[in-house]
Request: fold
Amino acid sequence: MRTSMLSLAILMLLAATSSANRPWRRPPPIRHAVPTPQGSHADDGPPRIMYWSGKVNQHVDLERMTWETDPDGVSGANLDPLQYCQKWYPNTVEVREHAPVTLATWRERGNVNEHTSRKLSLECLQESIDQLAT
Reply:
């Protein structure tokens, strides 16, 4: 009798502490660029572009401060970064690595299908006011 009472007590203890009786906890969120109707939010910063081989290039729309997919639907990673920066920011004189960014606005050729990936952004350095004056 003593053994069965001990077994019953153990079973009750296990039932009370099982994970099924604990409240479910949501895992912490993964931080990414925030999707907007036009693209993913780009924090304040310099003009930038991003490439992902096999996908349409991204650039920052400086008025909306969002990452945008190139509307031509074909510009890809095979393009020279300086020339691609100059397409969006004509005063670009140099390109350098900036920072990795996770975007959900990547599209395939023809601007179809959505993909999310973290890629290195490239900063499009602009001609300074002093350079323009000379």
Observations:
- The chain is about 20% helix and 35% strand.
- The chain has a mean pLDDT of 80.
- The two ends are 100 Å apart (CA to CA).
